[in-house]
Every structure is written in structure tokens, then in C-alpha cells.
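Quick one, C-alpha cells below. Sequence please?
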């Protein structure tokens, strides 16, 4: 991509050709075997041993410490995964090919912004059956969540990632962020999912990583790594996902951009 580098992370080596086809940089996460064409976060300064709990943030840490200092300013740097990718606003149909719908050029609309975030997903659209199945404890704590307008980010996090865990984590935030972020989780019912962003300022990227990683490290002292179940094992990635939306909206001028949920594992044999 002209004037942009998008890093696309995957847990599977077989995604290489598809990721390269759209001009993204392939990043291999976890302890799987990857060829030399993949970037890996298990060398130089790294926390790759935490990938099970931090997900893509082990690569973000590696990028922050080892790559960001060498990046040119005013160059778009972005992140996505093989399942959640930046879209090009074309309508997806049953016959859509991967290369038809994934962003491969820097849009003109980006020129007036310094950060790109994914379009919001709304937590208050949860089906009532799932609410009852997974959210009884959260409802007991906050009965008003029976009303869709009250199903905020805090309620949703409690329901899927452990009652009270978000508040415990927020208590460990820097003072200047603590109450603002707490208010954000209570006043909002949507956020940009996927821990995805694109930014063209080295300073902004550095400031974000300088805020998020010390906080997550402090959270380790209360949550540890003896975490079970998908919703709790990746606790640190889910905390970061909510914080990302808050932080970039507070400190930057973001543009919300379409994210496509496209299973490229089904497209590996396509002739594009």
C-alpha cells in the first residue's frame, strides 16, 4: 500500500499467500511454526510467552520496542488479523473474493484524520436468550440492564469476562485516566472491536503503548495467568480492546472505518 504498512497477524502459517496477496505484512503469533517470510515476536525485546493471554498485544509490544523507533513519521501504520480486516467499502456477497473486499489502497478520506478505528459494534443488541444464559449475575448486580439502553460496556465485560474484573482493572490505571475510563465504560454501549487501528503519528502510537502496557502489567498482579475459559484466558487482550476505543477517542481525531469479518481460510484455494 502506498504510504501505509498494514500488519496482519495470524496463528496459522497457511495464511501467508493470502495475506501477501493484498500487500499486508504477515505476522505469526503464538508458538506455531512459521516460515522465514513471517514476522515473529519471539526475538529481540519481547513478551511472546504471554501470547495466550495478551493475543495480538505481544506483537504490539515487540513492534513498539523494536520497530517503531525506526519508522518514518507521517506514514500510516496499521494492524489487523486474518479474520478481521480493513474493508474497502464494497458490498460483500456470497461470490465475493478476498481481494475484492479488503482495503489495498490508502483512501482519500483518511487525509483529514490521524487515526483510523473500526466501526463500532453495539453491546445492547445482544439476544435476550444469551443475556439470560450468560448474564444472570450481571443482571442481579444491575437489574436496569434488562433495558437495552443500560447494557453498557461495563455490563458486557462483567457478563463475558468475570463480574467486577473491569472495575478491579480500572482501579490500577494511572490517575489521569482512571475516572475518565470508568465513566466511558458506563456511558457507552459500543466500541471498536478487534484491537485494530491505523495511525500515522509515531508519537500517538508510542503514547498509546506507553499507557496500555504498564497498566496491563499491573493487572497481572491481581489476575495472574491461571485463567480458564476463552473469556478469561485472554483477559488482558479484552481489557485492551475497551481501552483502545477510549484512549484514541480521547487523544486523537479518529475516523471510523468498515471492518470485514471474512474467513479467509475458506478462500485459500480461490483463483484471484
Amino acid at each position: 500500500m502506498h504510504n501505509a504498512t498494514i500488519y496482519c497477524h495470524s496463528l496459522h502459517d497457511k495464511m501467508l499467500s493470502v495475506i501477501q496477496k493484498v500487500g499486508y505484512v504477515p505476522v505469526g503469533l503464538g508458538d506455531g511454526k512459521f516460515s522465514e517470510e513471517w514476522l515473529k515476536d519471539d526475538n529481540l525485546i519481547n513478551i511472546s510467552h504471554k501470547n495466550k493471554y495478551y493475543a495480538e498485544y505481544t506483537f504490539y509490544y515487540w513492534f513498539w520496542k523494536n520497530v517503531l523507533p525506526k519508522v518514518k513519521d507521517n506514514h500510516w501504520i496499521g494492524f489487523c488479523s486474518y479474520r478481521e480486516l480493513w474493508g474497502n467499502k464494497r458490498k460483500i456477497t456470497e461470490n465475493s473474493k478476498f481481494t475484492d473486499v479488503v482495503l489495498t489502497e490508502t483512501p482519500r478520506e483518511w487525509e483529514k484524520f490521524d487515526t483510523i478505528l473500526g466501526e463500532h459494534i453495539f453491546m445492547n443488541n445482544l439476544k435476550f436468550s444469551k443475556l439470560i444464559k450468560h448474564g444472570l449475575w450481571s443482571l442481579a448486580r444491575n437489574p436496569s440492564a434488562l433495558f437495552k439502553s443500560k447494557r453498557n460496556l461495563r455490563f458486557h465485560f462483567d457478563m463475558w469476562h468475570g463480574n467486577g474484573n473491569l472495575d478491579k482493572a480500572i482501579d490500577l490505571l494511572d490517575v489521569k485516566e482512571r475516572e475518565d475510563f470508568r465513566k466511558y465504560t458506563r456511558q457507552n454501549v459500543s466500541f471498536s472491536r478487534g484491537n485494530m487501528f491505523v495511525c500515522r503519528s509515531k508519537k500517538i502510537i508510542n503514547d498509546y503503548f506507553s499507557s496500555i502496557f504498564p497498566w496491563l502489567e499491573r493487572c497481572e498482579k491481581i489476575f495472574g495467568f491461571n485463567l480458564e475459559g476463552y473469556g478469561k484466558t485472554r483477559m488482558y487482550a479484552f481489557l485492551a480492546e475497551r481501552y483502545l476505543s477510549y484512549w484514541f477517542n480521547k487523544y486523537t481525531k479518529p475516523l471510523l472505518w468498515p471492518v470485514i469479518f471474512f474467513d479467509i481460510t475458506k478462500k485459500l484455494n480461490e483463483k484471484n
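Residues 4-266 form one domain. Residues 268-272 have pLDDT under 50 and may be disordered.
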